[in-house]
Amino acid sequence: MRSGEHLPLLFSVALVLLFGCGMDLLLASTGREAYPVLALEPQDGIEAQYRGNLRYDPALERVQAALPALRDRALERAQRATGLPTADPARFVVRLRDFGSRTVGASSQPVRTAAGDRLLISVSSEQVRLGQMDLEGSLAHELTHGLMREHLGPRYRRLPAWVREGVAVWAAGQIPERTRIAFGLYWQEGLDLGAVLDEQPMLPSLGDDYLENALLFQGMQDELGGDSVRAFLRALVEGAEVPEAFDEATALTWLELEELRARAARRLVKGFLPPDRLQAMLLSVP
Question: Are 259 and 201 in contact, with CB atoms under 8 Å apart?
């Protein structure tokens, strides 16, 4: 085969590389992400076109009707907790989605639409149908990610995951339930989490990274006031790196912050009933 016969194929491959990888590199160099492009038709912040397997389920239809109000409350909750207002509430769009995994309750991702960039929050249709999730809390969690993205821009992706997720769990009010689950898991192993926490100054593993990260911000709220977390976030928005932002907001050393986190966990588990006693109490109710 003559060498010239390969030229059309090589030219096509070069174009793919140029407009594929080249565009991603260009977006990365300018701080923009290569968002997927989707055709969305939101109404009141909700993507109305759910075409999943449960589209005729009555329970899901009721939730779909309630989603606009839930979204608005969750957005207000996230803004109030973080002190990060949004200039464009329409940028946050919620949809029901059939996830392949039953363990996924909600997720979010930036997308491009005909109306501009949006943060698309997907909620598990199966978990919603079964009532297995705190829907407003899950929305507040994902909306907190969106507010941080809006205010931090490209710097958001460079934040440590433990900061992103810790703030989101804290702002969404998901710490008490996650702590109760950790307490139950310790109890299944024959251990009392409260006693374990009392025996050591630092936080032991709770089997839940998100919870462990969020307890730091809970401790800040408990002992320094909720505005300390908002001050931390303001410092990040103004350009501070994570250690400097903590220093600005708390004036505490890392060791003091670790101790603060453990104290927050102790306060949360104080008064928790062991699962067997709680079950006995529930069974005794006529």
Answer: yes
pLDDT in tens, 9-38: 444 434 333 333 333 333 333 345 668 888
**Which phi and psi angles does 149 have, rounded to 5°?**
-60, -45
DSSP string, 208-261: -HHHHHHHHHHHHHHHH-HHHHHHHHHHHHTT--HHHHHHHHH---HHHHHHHH
Q: What's the sign of the alpha-carbon dihedral 236, 242, 244, 247?
A: positive
- The residue with tokens 């699962």 is 275
**Does the pLDDT value for residue 135 go beyond 50?**
yes
The model's pTM: 0.83
Dihedral sign computed on CA atoms, order 129, 133, 136, 140: negative
Instruction: Name the β-bridge partners of 42.
Output: 47
Read off the pLDDT band of 169 (50, 70, 90).
very high
Cα–Cα distance for residue pair 97/105, rounded to 1 Å: 10
